[in-house]
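Quick one, T. Sequence first:
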Amino acid sequence: MSYSVGQVAGYAGVTVRTLHHYDDIGLLVPSERSHAGHRRYNDADLDRLQQILFYRELGFPLDEVAALLDDPDADPRAHLRRQYELLTARIERLQKMAAAVEHAMEARKVGINLTPEEKFEVFGDKDPEQYADEVEARWGNTEAYAESQRRTASYTKEDWKRMQAEVADWSERYDALMAAGEAPTGEQAMAMAEEHRQHICRWFYECPYELHQCLGEMYVSDERFRAFYDSMRPGLAEHLRDAITANAARHAS
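Structure tokens:
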């Protein structure tokens, strides 16, 4: 039995463009072609794609994934054991960080120096201190929270407007990137993930790549953050999470 590129993209949760790219670089070449020249994938191809996506989730560059999968001496079961060990180690690291920072944090207790009129002008019908008590209870003892509080305490109405303009510009460009079919592992997506990280560093607190990855996970697991990012474009939270992961992987030493 064989499957079309559209079917495989649907099964795997990737874009058709991603599958075309994998074919172009020889990472996943479909075993068959239709009479019209269209790609057709068999079960072995799907198994290979699963292995590719496992390694990509772990942050492996595409060239390393190809080298691992094309090793003639490699046992398919060894791949699974390796991936299991890497995933377990990653889970343990994330759990330690989550315990220390309580899902890392993106504290936004804002508007300290704004009058009620200015808050309404800047934030509209969104209450900037809606989650202030929860933020302080969860993250009040962290260095990131203290740094965020120190910085935001001095921000003026113009500062908040400039920050919001940056977010609006970034969200428009990210929406356009997704509309164009850019994969989270694409250069443009990773560049925008880096821009997102730099925005946090510039306005709130230093955000190393490991912390940024934890934030990416929170954008998907916390319904409020997911709703915020998905309001820019449906599916943006998960796409950004994956772009953050890919960006962190390429900056890993």
